[in-house]
Amino acid sequence: MTTLVRSAGPRHARIPEHGPSRRIYLPRLADAAASSMATYTIPLLVLATTDSASLTGIAFMLAWVPRLSTFGMAGSAVDRFGAARVFRLAATARAGVVGIAALVLAFTHGHTATVVVMLLAACAGFLTEFSYIAAESVGAVASREAADGAHRIQSVLLGIDQGAALAGPAAGGFLLQWTGPTGMLAAIGGLSLLAAVITPRVRGGRSTTAMSLAESVRTGWSTLRALPALACLVVGLALSNLALGVLEAAVPVILVKQLGHASASVGVVWSAAAAASLAAIAVCRIAIDRWGLSSVGRVAACVASVACFALAHADAYPAYLLLIAAFMAGDGVLTVVLRTLRSRLIPAEVFGSTLSLTVLILLLPYPVAGILVATTPPAALDHVITACAVLQALGLAVAFTVTRRRRHRSGGRHRKRRA
């Protein structure tokens, strides 16, 4: 795993000769599996340790608040020290943290164990954000190197993330049930350490100019403002994430409370949606090769928007199953489009700062979605979903309109130059 990093002149970090599997995919797979297990099973560990639903919710918050508050710090670190170095340090630190927590939990109980698991949730969330931003930066470098094949690399990386999100919670829950906290934490620590060990080392790569956190945020904002096509797509996908967050929070209420299905049926819906998303990500590589990034992105936006609007009027379990699968398939393809454009448009020397800002914008709608569902009577959730579908459609329509206009203007300039 390597990256180009900012320096005082045109020289960049020396990139070792490794294939994409050794350089990108294997470290990303190990880190994504560890991150997914930590994100979804540490709250289960808190519940098993404290037997308190309120503390479990607080632990989930403690895992996400550091992630939302350290985007600028993580991006600045990547721009200053290089993605490979930050990735390796974050993965190693996470392995050390969970290892210490496993040892402490093996010999303590009561209040001490409660404090340990709560601190573990916060530390894991903090370190996971650094490894994520660094891994995304590495993927962007590989995409720039691949030129027209950038979408293939991004689809593989997104497939790794989706697969880890699908398998990580199940594996972590199984390990927690059958091996206890020690076995589950040992798995997270082992995967984290593996990710650090198999990441190729990079010579050089240290920036001679350090950016403060405020400078990193300003750099991200200025870069995003200078790229209106990317900025509009980020806003459009943020509105799409608002719809997704509302669905994630509302579908359990609708299926269980209103339609009378068992809780397990909710899990089936999202497992089918994850499978549909993985299939769409695999197919979109061929589609983008044939029809282009923008055309495939517009089709995916239509599929996701229409599916979300139809979900507001669905009244049967099979309809929810199929429509959510369609929504997630479109959302997966849109994510490939975003990551590909992001890797093409953002300059390498400010990629970490700009990436951290875009990820923050994309994640902020999730707590808003939770508030919307929490303050809306169950009978009125269909109206909220309809409103989210309209906002999603408008945001994505504006995003792809701006992208098309910018591409046509760029094409016109190139034709004039050739003339």
Give a quick set of tags describing it:
419 residues; mainly alpha; 14 helices
Plain-language structure description:
- The structure is a single chain.
- The two termini are 42 Å apart.
- Helix 3 (71-81) packs across helix 5, helix 9 runs antiparallel to helix 10 (293-311) and helix 9 crosses helix 11 (317-345).
- The longest helix is centred in the middle third of the chain and has 48 residues, at 150-197.
- This protein is globular.
- It has helices at 20-50, 53-69, 71-81, 83-107, 111-146, 150-197, 213-225, 228-258, 263-291, 293-311, 317-345, 351-363, 365-374, 381-418.
- It contains 14 helices and no strands.
- The model is unreliable at 1-17, 203-208 and 410-419 (pLDDT under 50).
- Helices cover 84% and strands 0% of the residues.
- By secondary structure, it is mostly helical.
Number of strand elements: 0
Strand content: under 5%
Could you list the spans in which at least 5 consecutive residues all have pLDDT below 50?
A: 1-17, 203-208, 410-419
Mass-distribution shape: globular
Instruction: Quote the distance from N terminus to C terminus.
Output: 42 Å
Mean pLDDT, to the nearest integer, reads 80
Major sheet details: none
List SSEs in N-to-C order. Answer: HHHHHHHHHHHHHH
> How many whole angstroms does the radius of gyration measure?
22 Å
Return the structural class.
Answer: mainly alpha
* Approximate helicity band: over 70%
How large is the count of helical segments? 14
